[in-house]
Write a structure and sequence with these properties.
Keywords: Magnesium, Metal-binding, Molybdenum, Molybdenum cofactor biosynthesis, Transferase. The radius of gyration is 32 Å and the shape is elongated. The protein has 6 helices and 22 strands. A hairpin with a 2-residue loop joins strand 16 and strand 17. It has 4 domains: about 160 residues, MoaB/Mog-like domain (Molybdenum Cofactor Biosythetic Enzyme, Chain A), CATH 3.40.980.10; about 60 residues, Molybdopterin biosynthesis moea protein, domain 2; about 70 residues, Molybdopterin biosynthesis moeA protein, domain 3; about 70 residues, MoeA, C-terminal, domain IV (Beta-clip), CATH 2.40.340.10. Helix 3 packs parallel to helix 6. The strands form 6 sheets. A 6-stranded mixed β-sheet has the order 13-10-14-17-16-15, with helices on both faces. A 5-stranded mixed β-sheet has the order 6-3-5-4-7, with no helix packed on it. It has a 5-stranded mixed barrel with strand order 18-20-19-21-22. It is an alpha/beta fold and about 400 residues long. The relative contact order is 0.13. Helix content is about 20%, strand content about 25%. The site of ligand LQZAQKY5 has 27 residues, from strand 10, helix 3 and helix 6.
Length: about 400
């Protein structure tokens, strides 16, 4: 098997991968999967006031030292404070306020009593329980203090951060823009889903397969389309796509056939070949070029080959472009539940389902042109070069999808 190793390929690919620098402001409800571009600092204490975590009465703990069901302590109820109300009137010894969960505790009080530990009195309340100072008392600033950097630039954002930002009163944040990718598939044999299928034609799987995965990984798609197997047309399509995109992805026409037009198309636009051929199955004829600073990843046309190299190379590229370490490949170990009959003279990736340390192989064919048996698979077994047929119980490793 010719070509460089996958590690060498990844290294070269990353050398030609730009990190996106441009920033944009987005609403915090849309931040999931984005990367924060600037530190976000708090400008007030939260909660902004001492507050009650219960429905009951706020008063002074020193008044309650002897309180019990048998010998209740009676306090005069000054007022009711509901959540959202605010009172600055000091509560003195012998006094209490009726207070609701989330309401601001007035000055003078240093504890709250649950209403279940009282007689629910409206003007005079009988308290049945002693409370320690600061019990049932949430302090101003216990969530965060003014001047704290709660979220640092570079953090990957999700629902927790959306909630934290909302609590800070922030409605928009600055994030790095998404990488823009164009996907161009080749092949005079491909028809688009929804169209009738003429003899000799197949549906274009790669467009949708790649578009769905790249969107899932966090990219923006500038265009996704099929280009006829004509070098001039593909050259034009690449030139046009490069005006909008940070990365170009093509599928098909990279092998050695007469219609393998990617080589000529890339030569026509003056793209520099970085490598052609990786010692891996599937995806062996993968071609990678640099077109005036824009990386061009040309995947082989077989859908499973395109899928494997998307995970092995495109995903780490996106991790770098977006500064998202969560996209880096995760490896798992386990044992095989099923046999895999083919020997692997070179490194091979095989579709599988991993659960509780066990790898299950799907029923259908594990062939590069077969995609249906991928349904339900969640990993790619990484079978080292020089392996023979694999049998149940053999140890194995995989990358998670
Ligand atoms: N004489 C040789 N023939 C082949 C070699 C070789 O070394 N010598 N390598 C084989 C290997 S390995 C692969 S992989 C393929 C790679 O071919 P290409 O990348 O040039 O891709 P195509 O020939 O265009 O297509 C391969 C296969 O995939 C189907 N295809 C293409 N595009 C799509 C699409 N968008 N959706 C669904 N299916 C697609 C296409 O019809 C072919 O069946 O070359 C081997 N040949
Ligand atoms: O390398 Mo090809 O991608 O075996 O199918």
């Amino acid at each position: 098997m010719g070509g460089i190793t996958t590690e060498e390929a990844l290294c070269l690919v990353l050398q030609h991968t730009p990190v996106i620098q441009e920033k944009e402001q987005i609403q915090i409800a849309n931040i999931s999967g984005r990367v924060l571009a600037e530190d976000v600092k708090t400008v007030f204490d939260n909660p902004p006031f001492h507050r009650s975590p219960i429905d009951g009465y706020a008063c002074r703990a020193a008044d309650l030292t002897d309180a019990s069901k048998e010998q209740p302590v009676c306090l005069t109820v000054l007022r009711e404070i509901d959540a959202g109300d605010y009172s600055e009137e000091e509560v003195l010894s012998g006094q209490a306020v009726r207070i609701m969960t989330g309401a601001a505790i007035p000055p003078g009080c240093d504890c709250c009593v649950r209403q279940e530990d009282t007689d629910y009195g409206e003007e005079i309340v009988q308290i049945y329980k002693a409370e320690r100072q600061w019990s049932n008392y949430c302090f101003k600033g216990e969530d965060f203090k003014a001047g704290q950097v709660l979220l640092k630039a570079g953090r990957e954002l999700g629902f927790v951060e959306a909630g934290v930002l909302a609590g800070m009163g922030v409605s928009k944040v600055s994030v790095y823009r998404r990488p823009r990718i164009a996907v161009l598939t080749t092949g005079n044999e491909v028809a688009q889903p929804g169209e009738p299928l003429a003899p000799g034609k197949i549906y274009d799987i790669n467009q949708k397969l790649l578009a769905a995965r790249l969107l899932e990984l966090g990219a923006e798609l500038t265009e996704v389309r099929s280009v006829p197997d004509e070098p001039e047309q593909m050259a034009e399509a690449l030139k046009k796509a490069a005006k909008e995109a940070d990365l170009l992805v093509t599928t098909g026409a990279v092998s050695v056939g007469k219609k393998d037009i990617m080589h000529e198309s890339l030569a026509l636009i003056g793209a520099e070949r970085v490598f052609w051929g990786i010692q891996v199955k599937p995806g062996m004829p993968t071609l990678f070029s640099d077109y005036a600073g824009i990386p061009v990843m040309s995947l082989s046309g077989n859908p499973f080959s395109a899928l494997v190299i998307t995970e092995l190379l495109l995903r780490p590229m996106l991790a770098k472009m977006m500064r998202k370490s969560s996209l880096e490949l995760v490896r798992v170990k386990g044992t095989l539940a099923d046999a895999f009959g083919k020997p692997s003279p070179g490194r091979r990736f095989v579709r599988a389902y991993w659960e509780n340390g066990v790898f299950h192989l799907p029923e259908g064919l594990n062939s590069n042109g077969v995609l249906a048996s991928m349904v339900g698979c969640n990993c790619l077994l990484d079978v080292p070069a020089g392996s023979g047929a694999l049998k149940p119980g053999d140890p194995a490793e995989a990358i998670l999808l």
